[in-house]
């Protein structure tokens, strides 16, 4: 039962025993900064590393769309009837209350299709006294005398427009309708009804909010405001999230290119000396990465869709807890790998990264890895325990970025052909599960899974997020792992090619593809704001920019055939040491 999902996940890249291979490579990268270490993998370590890879594959398969998790505040619904006087958008409404003059709870409701529009700013919203309808459903004239109060009524059996007209005729200035469930119902006009004479706002509240107000208003004086604030055109969270995504790919690209450059220099040295170690070096280097193939790129869509449907059907609190554990395992591996590589750059830590001790069940492990591992484990556990706190997004982003950088260092696209197939499949996958899936499932499967609907949690953890700081509705701007990893594979490929070909920054392909990614992600957020926060498939905008840039530049510079087939420039004389020219 454990290895079945692992074997299913293996088909993402399809080499035999992919998880065992990738797990070993993660361990290899985290043990030292050197790429030429002897690999020692014990069975217990295989299980641990496979779990970490499994958590990564979940993130890669599930998330290739960008969303604002606060939810849509404007709902455009063309399926419900519209006519003059009954053509409002369904907007979320804030209902802050005061009890005996003291600020109390704030509720959220939804406006009706009819009636006047509400104020967008709290300072312009009038503070009005609340009264309970008698009879409660307000389907007949209220017995209590109203002098401009907001009347609180039950849903009842009469139409929304009918009870609104009755409440307005009785002297109410607004009407709050308590739904009979915790959901918010879209209030529309009945056929043949005249709604042009309705001049008071209508708001529906969920049943729990309505009962709370009923209980308080019986013993205290309750006043409230009704307003529907608009989201800002641009929130600073989106700027920081853009910088985070671009910076992650930038770091991973230079790490990957530096590793390839060291391998090329080492090979040239051995060729120059005529050493017999060249064959051994080539074998070791080939085990240092996992290359995506055309077949595995095509099957990506099928496997990813299966995982997404599984999460959609099994979404619950316990399933989220399982994903949190898997994310923590992958996060520990990624954070450990990045910290060990970073610390190994300093001379005082380098000797600890090159000294090994044999640990039972784990094999040979560097002293630096042993020192860093407890910190990484404690960090992940602390995040898991405190993940409901407002500051937990910081720990989630640190673990996620570390995992993404590690994967982009290990997994490689060998040429433009494989990159084209992979991103094209991901492009179609993104569009289908964000937009087209609404026709079959009556809701966007990707958005439902990303937000963690029906799970009681704020979405699953395989994503990067930042709180929307100046948004009156709060929430988070989020981006999935797939929006960074999949385009990042092609961006890192471009930089590796540039360094091997000794191209300058302006004459190479990295600057173009990196700029294309940044521009595509920027347009994603522009579309996100233009569509009132509705979830957008980021790859819809990113993929055409990246592929188009590579094809145009490759054709213009005469390198397209080489990029498409071999993915590496012709190697110069082995006696010439490869060095990237200064940009």
From TrEMBL:
GO cellular component term, pick one: lumenal side of endoplasmic reticulum membrane
Cellular compartment(s): Endosome membrane
UniProt KW Transmembrane keyword: yes
Pfam families associated with the record: PA, Peptidase_A22B
Domain PA: 135-213
Gene Ontology molecular function: any one: aspartic endopeptidase activity, intramembrane cleaving
Chain segments annotated as transmembrane: 12-30, 51-71, 289-312, 318-349, 361-385, 391-411, 418-436, 473-495, 507-528, 534-553
Principal location: membrane
Membrane protein topology class: Multi-pass membrane protein
Keyword field: Endosome, Glycoprotein, Hydrolase, Membrane, Protease, Signal, Transmembrane, Transmembrane helix
GO biological process: membrane protein proteolysis
Iron-sulfur listed as a keyword: no
Annotated PANTHER family: SIGNAL PEPTIDE PEPTIDASE, SIGNAL PEPTIDE PEPTIDASE-LIKE 4
Functional summary from the UniProt entry: Intramembrane-cleaving aspartic protease (I-CLiP) that cleaves type II membrane signal peptides in the hydrophobic plane of the membrane.
UniProt similarity note: Belongs to the peptidase A22B family.
Entry protein name: PA domain-containing protein
């Amino acid at each position: 039962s454990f290895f079945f999902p692992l074997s299913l996940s293996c088909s993402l890249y399809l080499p035999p025993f992919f998880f065992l291979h990738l797990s070993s490579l993660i361990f290899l990268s985290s043990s030292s900064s050197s790429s030429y270490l002897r690999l020692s993998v014990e069975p217990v370590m295989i299980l641990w590393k496979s779990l970490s890879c499994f958590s990564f594959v979940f993130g890669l398969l599930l998330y290739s769309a960008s969303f604002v998790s606060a939810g849509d505040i404007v709902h455009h619904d063309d399926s419900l009837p519209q006519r003059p006087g009954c053509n409002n958008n369904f907007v979320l409404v804030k209902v802050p209350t005061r009890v005996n003059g003291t600020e109390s709870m704030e509720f959220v409701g939804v406006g009706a299709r009819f009636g006047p529009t509400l104020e967008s700013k709290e300072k312009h919203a009038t503070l009005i006294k609340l009264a309970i309808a008698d009879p409660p459903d307000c389907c007949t004239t209220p017995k209590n005398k109203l002098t401009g109060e907001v009347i609180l009524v039950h849903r009842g059996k009469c139409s929304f427009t009918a009870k609104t007209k009755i409440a307005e005729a009785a002297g109410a200035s607004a009407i709050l309708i308590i739904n009979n469930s915790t959901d918010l119902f879209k209030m529309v006009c009945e056929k043949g009804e005249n709604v042009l004479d309705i001049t008071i706002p209508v708001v529906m509240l969920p049943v729990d909010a309505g009962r709370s107000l009923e209980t308080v208003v019986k013993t205290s004086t309750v006043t409230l405001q009704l307003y529907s604030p608009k989201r800002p055109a641009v929130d600073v969270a989106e700027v920081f999230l853009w910088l985070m995504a671009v910076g992650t790919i930038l770091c991973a690209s230079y790490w990957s290119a530096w590793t390839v450059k060291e391998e090329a220099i080492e090979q040239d040295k051995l060729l120059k000396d005529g050493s017999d170690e060249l064959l051994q070096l080539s074998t070791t280097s080939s085990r240092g990465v996992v290359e995506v193939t055309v077949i595995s790129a095509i099957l990506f869509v099928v496997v990813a869709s299966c995982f997404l449907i599984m999460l959609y059907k099994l979404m619950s609190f316990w399933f989220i807890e399982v994903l949190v554990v898997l994310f923590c395992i992958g996060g520990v591996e990624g954070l450990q790998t990045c910290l060990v590589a970073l610390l190994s750059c300093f001379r005082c830590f380098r000797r600890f990264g090159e000294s090994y001790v044999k640990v039972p069940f784990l094999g040979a492990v560097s002293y630096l890895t042993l020192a860093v591992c407890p910190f990484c484990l404690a960090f992940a556990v602390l995040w898991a325990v405190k993940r409901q706190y407002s500051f937990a997004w910081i720990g989630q982003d640190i673990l996620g970025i570390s995992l993404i950088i590690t994967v982009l260092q290990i997994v490689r696209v060998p040429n433009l052909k494989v990159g084209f197939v992979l991103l094209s499949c991901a492009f179609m996958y993104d569009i289908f599960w964000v937009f087209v899936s609404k026709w079959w499932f009556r809701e966007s499967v990707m958005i439902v899974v990303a937000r963690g609907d029906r799970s009681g949690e704020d979405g699953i953890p395989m994503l990067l997020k930042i709180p929307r700081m100046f948004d009156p509705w709060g929430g988070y701007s989020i981006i999935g792992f797939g929006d960074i990893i999949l385009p990042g594979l092609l961006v890192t490929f471009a930089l590796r090619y540039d360094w091997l070909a000794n191209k300058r920054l302006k004459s190479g392909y990295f600057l173009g593809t990196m700029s294309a990614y940044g521009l595509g992600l920027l347009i994603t957020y522009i579309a996100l704001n233009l569509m009132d926060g509705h979830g957008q498939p980021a790859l819809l905008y990113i993929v055409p920019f990246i592929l188009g840039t590579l094809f145009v530049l490759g054709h213009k510079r005469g390198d397209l055939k080489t990029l498409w087939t071999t993915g590496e420039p012709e190697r110069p004389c082995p006696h010439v040491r490869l060095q990237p020219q200064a940009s």
